[in-house]
Design brief:
The chain has 40 helices and 14 strands. The protein is an alpha+beta fold. Among the domains are: about 130 residues, Arc Repressor Mutant, subunit A (Orthogonal Bundle), CATH 1.10.10.10; about 160 residues, Rossmann fold (3-Layer(aba) Sandwich), CATH 3.40.50; about 270 residues, Tetratricopeptide repeat domain (Serine Threonine Protein Phosphatase 5, Tetratricopeptide repeat).
Length: about 800
Amino acid sequence: MGPAESARVFHFGDFVVHAGARTLHKHGVRLKLHRQPLEVLFLLLQRAGEVVTREELQQKLWSADTFVDFENGLNAAIKKLRQALEDSTEAPRYIETVPRVGYRFIATVRMTRPDVPEGSPDLPGSVFTAPAVPPSGAVEELTRRQSAVALPSRRVWASKVGAFVGGALALIALIALVGYERHRATNTLTAHALTEKDTIVLADFANATGDPVFDETLRQGLIVQLEQSPFLSLISEERIQHVLRLMGRPAGARLTPEIAREVCERTGSAAVLEGSIASLGSQYVLGLRARACQTGDLVDQEQMQAARKEDVLNTLSQIASRFRARVGESLAMVQKHNTPLEEATTSSLDALKSYSTALKIVASTGAPAAEPLFKRATELDPNFAMAHAWVGRVYDDMGESSLSAESTKTAFHLRDRASDAEKLFITASYDMQVTGNMEKAQQTCEAWAATYPRAVVPHDFLSGIVYPPFGKYEKGVEEAQKAIDRDPDFAVGYLTLAYSYVYLDRLEEAENTLQGASERKLEMPDYYVLRYDIAFLRDDKAEMARQVSLAQRKSGAEDWIANHQAFVYAYFGQLQEATRMSRQATALALQAAQRERAGLYEAGTAVREALFGNLAAARQSAIAALELSKGRDVEYGAAIALALSRDQSRAEALMNDLKKRFPEGTNVQFSYLPTLRAVVDLEQGKPSSAIEALQTAIPGELGAPGSSYFGFFGALYPVFFQGEAYLAAHKGAEAAAEFQKILDHRGIVVSDPIGALAHLQLGRAYALSGDKTKARSSYEDSLKLWKDADPDIPILKQAKSEYARLQ
């Protein structure tokens, strides 16, 4: 050993090895280790990242004329070495066993020399081990080239390290795994095929090319390819991010093989997939390796070569197809659901990278923060269907339905550039967000769930978006539970399940559902708003105040809960305070550049003012809402307020616009238009026409339409105005039955003022029927609710006058 070589010091993890002295230190303390384990360690460190064969170790440790039980001796040396390094065979951090071949040092190694300053050209720097596995042809060619070319001197090599390091690292990775490829042809994999019940964790790709465009990109590409499989099931990005938080890792932390394995164990998954890419001149070598997370056994490994950078995504598609077939999926299924990656996503690596980063942000931070990156992906590739679809999804989650419809429509026109699973996502989104046809959305989601039995999203769409307008809340419970069964860390699933329970007036089960989410450390702004509503239904003012305080600290909940506070004030007749809170909600939404959401808050104000008889204020708020947005639900709320305020021409114009724009819309055709027609007819003194118009709404009269989510108005309005029409037609008993429906379904109405007005209208219905006792009781209920109401409210004055006459 020369002076330079003996002066080398190797650093890895908490350990330091001095080459000349052959000593191993941990935190500065020398560890006792015999010569043979130290020699093995030194040889592995010298060739970090390479497979060192058992034959090479035998030649290094024992001379040819030495008679010794080599197998047991080497095994004992490796065992003692692992004990000193606190390493394990099952989950190696430093020394990996290559079955029947040898060993490989897999950790990052940094080399220094006390006699040379760091950064000097005399230092070769750090060694990085990448798990890329080259095809045998590439290895043979590489070996041939190496044998024909003399290596440059250390000083010359070091002086060109900046230009050469990418290629050198790739060569290290390629040479290191020659043994793997040769061994694979004759050796059976340790683990066997996966089953339909297994789940998989996909680690981040090891990128040894030096080109950052591959960071995140290839992992997302592989996700797209593997999610085409009805057989395989990947742990979702949302669940991964949640588990990382529980592990104390920062949002968006790199999913190294070691971290991925821990995620795998925590989620009860079967295997970890590790991908890699390395460059070989102008070519690229892609590798994929699957290991059982409990044992570390090899499940499968694949590798292929791409001739050019432009061919990398196509090669990734091929490698994914091979993997699917080898781990147990039928060849027929692979062939049926196997859209090439460039057709399923994009041919732009930059667009795919932006899209991938956005999805991680959705999972770790929330949808609004991801919107710029999704839009960036569509700018880099205007034909990127799923990027457009996700822009639409994000806007819908923010209450911006018009913007959502624009992007979703674009995605729908580009849906042929998507995988089968993505086409179902895009088609369902189009049904829900563009046409509003919930019947078609239901059919699409059911087909989606049937084709991909372990998919979560179709069940969430059914529970949270499709079934509520029909009033199918029991079905909503069933579908939400399916979503949670498939992903216990799916936060939205707990939300839609809790909402379904509230709609059914099963408040304790709703509270238990949200508590279950909290116990799993799940949280989202919607939880605070729903807890506030539950507290209102329980008349728990302290809990209401607590949820307001919590929501005001959480971005995304402040404006929303302010709007719910406004409705509570209005419910008790405190319209001035209600208006003040609505103005606050509107201002907060506008600060977040959410104009349609702000328009919904203004529309809600208009509806409340109109219901209580403040007609001038109602018209003013309706016009303000329309200036902010022409969204479907905004137009509905404004039209209700204008019709009640006797501005029939504007109300009719909005009705015609809704009818023209949403000929298939379930909410529009079976709730909004019948209700608006009835209100207009009532104001024109035609109660029989109003009753007839509302017949269309009866099948879904207990539904929660889209306007009732962010806008918080519109639920049970067909029932309310049916009761109004019966009153106007002097049919007291029929009117009483309608208003009683509202009082019997508080979980659907919550704090919408029609819940308070139903008491007064029920009293009027009983009075019309001649039952003064029940009439007085209902009037007293309404006046009790309004004991602290603003004294000049027209409806309150009427109620007091009518109650006095009953006495």
